[in-house]
Amino acid sequence: MAALVEQVENYPFYHGFIPREELLYLLEKVGDFLIRIALRKRQNPSLVLSIRTQRENIDESIRHIMIHHRRGEDGIERWLIHEKRLCATLSDLIDCYIAHGEPVNPEIKTSILLRGIRKQSWELDNDSVTVETVIGHAPRAVISEGRILIDGTWRTVIIKAIEIPLSINEMDGTREQIKAAANEARILSNLEHTNIIKTYGIALLREPVLFVSETIANAPTLYTTLRRRRGSISDVEKVESMCLACARAVDYIHSRKCIHRCIGSRNVLYTDDKLAKLCEFGLARTGDVYVLKKSQRVPLRWMAPESLAACTFTTKSDVFSFGIFLFEVFTEGKEPYKGLSSVQVKRMVTCGSRMERPRKCPDEIFALMQKCWEQNPEERCTMSDAVAVIERYLREISSETGRLRKEKRHEEKESGRDELDAKNAVLDEP
Q1: For 88-111, what is each residue's pLDDT tens digit?
Q2: Beta strand pairing call for 258-259 and 141-150
Q3: CB of 165 within 8 A of CB of 171?
Q4: What is the pLDDT of residues 130-139, one digit of tens each?
Q5: Which residues form the SH2 domain (predicted)?
Q6: Whole-model pTM above 0.85?
């Protein structure tokens, strides 16, 4: 594989291991094309030309043509799509088809190369990323600290390195992981918010694939924090630093036409400075509605009834999930629907039943949970509504806390005066 990549890596329209699912976003017009590597067998990689041949934004609008590279009897290496045209380099081959205006697939008349698509801002050069210290492992990936070169400056980052497996049996899992990482890199490249993790992009040109995000010191997941600090988290911290921060993040991505699809305490990082950052955008989608068309692992206990019943996801299904997130915060990490099987949870939610109010959950927050959990998506609040409700409640408890502190200080001051008066009275006695 390395030998093939070395010959094509610098070609301007080469995108490495870019997943097929990203092509609908990159190839916008009929005649747009790019070159990529198809993940089939690591020992025998396939170079593919992908081209848009129809205006409709469906999978069938993108066609994929194999590019062959072989050595002839004369010992000279040549590149070809069909035997009709053999060229010394990949660049010569593409230029030849462009110059002659010939379809790369004779059976599809619209498969004429018109515009080569260059890498996007979120597609990084592998040479701009340096892996340094391993800090952990994930399924099919190694997590490291490292650096990325941006505008001449090296920045410290977290790097997830995804290796291409030798076993064909492991290839499907790796393909799904790269697909999720590329999706996350593309979506987050258009998002910038205090409470959302910053992603620099993904390096796809050669193996390992490198997903690069900001480094956040001392930031376990919120789920871990809730369980570790159980019984010692104030209501103000829960409301302000956890619930409101996450609500603002989700409200922001909804304003940018993005559906997260995986809101939960495990997908929020939480620093020692009480800064929450929404992460894990691998399942996120852009648009107003997303319908899941094929089997996929999904967070069932956080899903809305319409998602469970019809695999339909919208901003309102995110709102339902946010209600589950509120439940997690005010139970300090308790599993939603604890004790029920996945089948029982699905039946319960789709039939309109909901979890009981968490112990010590304020009335205002439970009322918001219930509004998030409405059976009819149209009757649920928006995330903007949720932000407003939480902000209003925070003002109430902040002012109440301030009043109680003021009263306590006044009582302590008066108590101090009484003690001083008593001492003075003793001193005044003959």
Answers
A1: 999 999 999 999 999 999 999 999
A2: unpaired
A3: yes
A4: 999 999 888 8
A5: 13-112
A6: yes
What type of residue sits at position 47? L
CATH 1.10.510.10 range(s) for the chain read: 222-392
Rounded Cα–Cα distance for residues 237 and 259 (Å):
26
d(CA 39, CA 24): 18
* 357 vs 422: CA distance, rounded Å: 50
First to last CA, the chain: 102
**CB–CB of 219/276 below 8 Å?**
no
Cβ atoms 72, 80 nearer than 8 A: no
* DSSP single-letter state for residue 358: P
Q: Is the pLDDT of residue 411 over 80?
A: no
pLDDT category, 143, cuts 50, 70, 90?
very high
pLDDT, tens digit, 9 for 90 and up, residues 37-46: 987 765 667 8
**To the nearest 5 percent, what fractions of the chain are helix, strand and coil?**
40, 20, 35
State the DSSP string of 223-262: HHHHHHTTT---HHHIIIIIIIHHHHHHHHHHHTTEE-S-
Is the predicted pLDDT of residue 404 greater than 70, yes or no? no
Residue 294 DSSP label: S
Q: CATH 3.30.505.10 spans which residues of the chain? A: 2-108
What does CATH list as the number for 2-108? 3.30.505.10
Query: Residue 241's closest CA among 267, 272, 265, 274?
Result: 274
Q: Alpha carbon 274 to chain centroid distance?
A: 21
- The half-sphere exposure of 190 on its side-chain side, counting CA atoms within 13 A, is 16
The CATH code for residues 222-392 is 1.10.510.10
77 vs 294: which has the higher pLDDT: 77
